Amino acid sequence: MKNYIGDTWRSLSKAGRIILGIWILCLIALVVFLIIRNNNDEDSKTSEDNNTPEIAQVYEPSIGSPLPPDVPAETNWDNADNAGNVAGASTTTPSNEGATMMIAPNAGVNPNEPIPYQNDVLKFAVTLPAGSEVSEEDGKVVFTKNDGSLLFIASTQPAGTDTLETIKSQLSNSPSANNISYSTFSGKKSLKFTAKEYGTGTVFIANGKIYYLLGTQFSDFKVL
Questions:
Q1: Domain spanning 84-223, CATH class
Q2: 3-state DSSP assignment of residue 125
Q3: What are phi and psi of 144, to 5 degrees?
């Protein structure tokens, strides 16, 4: 084989040798070019793979497994002390948001009919004139007419060791209470007095609470 190549080379003319040399150089250059190009293509592909952002996975429920309906988060009251009801409408008030106003009656109730109100926390019920408004705060409920004038205020506080006698002594020292006397209210022994700026005042003890009623229209007030 070696002799064959040598003989072939010697048999070529000078021009043939030049042409053969050029052809061999071109072939070598082509091989080198292909090797370099292949390496560049691999580097470019690796770079694109590294720079391609990840596609977020999306959960798609299968047919026959519908998503659950949107349900509003349950409201969490810190301390609802005045859960009341005006003609079937809840008037619960969170203590951290002050008083809430509920106009009675609500939709579907005859606006000319008296309105039954019941408070299961303070444990009392009363019948209100048509169109009355109810404002509830911690331990107190204010009832007003639709023109804003006061009907009465009902408030409570823990009785503890207090009695009507000790309460009478306290009222006697108050400049806002006059004409204090013993009476009966809602079947219970009570104190009746004149309340400055409110009209009539009544105090009695029930359910471990002291009930204070201030105003002019609470004759239908009943302890539960």
A1: alpha beta
A2: strand
A3: -130, 160
